[in-house]
Amino acid sequence: MYVHKEQLYTRFEEIAWEDLGGGVRRKIMAYGDQLMAVYLEFKKGAVGALHAHPHVQAAFVRSGSVQVQIGEEFRVLGEGDFYYIPSGVEHGSLAIEDSVVIDLFSPMRQDFLPKE
Description:
Elements: E1 18-21, E2 24-32, E3 35-42, E4 47-51, E5 56-63, E6 65-70, E7 73-78, E8 82-85, E9 91-95, E10 99-106
Antiparallel strand pairs: 1-2, 2-3, 3-10, 4-9, 5-8, 5-10, 6-7, 6-9
């Protein structure tokens, strides 16, 4: 099952995984027009390729550690750390160990929704 727009409550175990390949998978946990929350798992060594998008993004490292690049700056972040990505700024990541990251996007990412 996939979450529906403005679904008020979501049970983690009821949401389907989307395998993105390369040791990355995600679940879209909640969204409306102005906000989207995404749960991501990265296997050690998995890469979030450099990219940019018009959405503002904030992320929380729930577990593990990731090397994050925002613009030209690199940081290694661990459990409990956050990062913020302004609109249009190139960014990417590398999982130093198995990791879980929670991403928040504003506005929501239409391109993440399942194709009907």
